[in-house]
Design a protein that fits this description.
This protein is mostly helical and about 230 residues long. It is globular, with a radius of gyration of 19 Å. It is built from six helices and two strands, in the order ββαααααα. The protein has a two-stranded antiparallel ribbon with strand order 1-2. It has one domain. Keywords: Membrane, Transmembrane, Transmembrane helix. It comes from Actinomadura rudentiformis. This is DUF998 domain-containing protein. InterPro entries: DUF998 (IPR009339). Pfam families: DUF998.
């Protein structure tokens, strides 16, 4: 936990060493999304047979180059857990938000450790109608479901926090992100390989990473420079 001391005005403030750590953790949270998206899109554009309109990014963990997406998921998870640790250090955000975001970060690591099964013709050579689900494929889906649920919950927890603080813009941004991410996840789950559902979920992924990055940058501005 961050060290808190009372200053001469009677307000709580974070000491310089704790502030440095918190700012570093928030910086890690800020780069998590852009890095994950950049690496995923680069692979999608260069991997043979990958189709953004049909394939979820998690399928990139398959094939001989699958280690890149596995690493991408693990790194994104660690950086997201760093954000959760930063939230825990902030005096007014140490409740459920860091726990929920921390679980989401852990779920990304688990999703990398337990890769999704090949499907819908990817990697190249996989039958379009492949339906076999392995043990690691089941664990991948379980990790995703738990992580996404926690992320959605975190968006509403933070939305309530910002609303109570009178930050209506951030409250709306947080709640809208959670609602749209839920809608995108439901759309994707309703039809594997469906173009509309897959693109809706991709848009939701981009939105939620943008929200987490913007949140990290916003909070970092309010941590004093040591």
């Amino acid at each position: 936990m961050a060290t808190i001391t009372a200053n001469t005005t009677g307000k709580k403030t974070v000491t310089a060493p704790a502030a440095r750590v918190t700012r570093t953790l928030l910086a890690a949270g800020a780069v998590a999304g852009p890095l994950y998206v950049l690496v995923s899109v680069a692979q999608g554009l260069t991997r043979d047979g990958f189709d953004f309109t049909r394939h979820a990014w998690s399928l990139l963990a398959n094939g001989e180059l699958g280690w890149i997406q596995i690493t991408n998921l693990v790194v994104a998870g660690l950086l997201t857990m760093a954000l959760a640790a930063a939230l825990r250090r902030l005096p007014d955000l140490g409740g459920w938000a860091p726990r929920l975001i921390g679980v989401y970060g852990a779920s990304l690591i688990a999703a990398g450790a337990f890769r999704a099964d090949p499907a819908l013709g990817f990697p190249a050579g996989t039958p379009d109608d492949a339906t076999t689900v392995s043990w690691h494929g089941m664990l991948h889906f379980a990790a995703g479901g738990i992580g996404f649920a926690c992320l959605i919950a975190a968006s509403f927890v933070l939305g309530r926090h910002f609303a109570a603080a009178g930050r209506r813009g951030w409250a709306a941004f947080s709640r809208t992100t959670g609602a749209l991410f839920l809608a995108g996840f439901v759309a994707m789950s309703a039809g594997a390989g469906n173009t509309v559902g897959n693109l809706a979920f991709t848009a939701a992924i981009l939105l939620v990473w943008a929200w987490l990055s913007a949140l990290s940058v916003h909070l970092r501005k309010h941590v004093p420079n040591a």
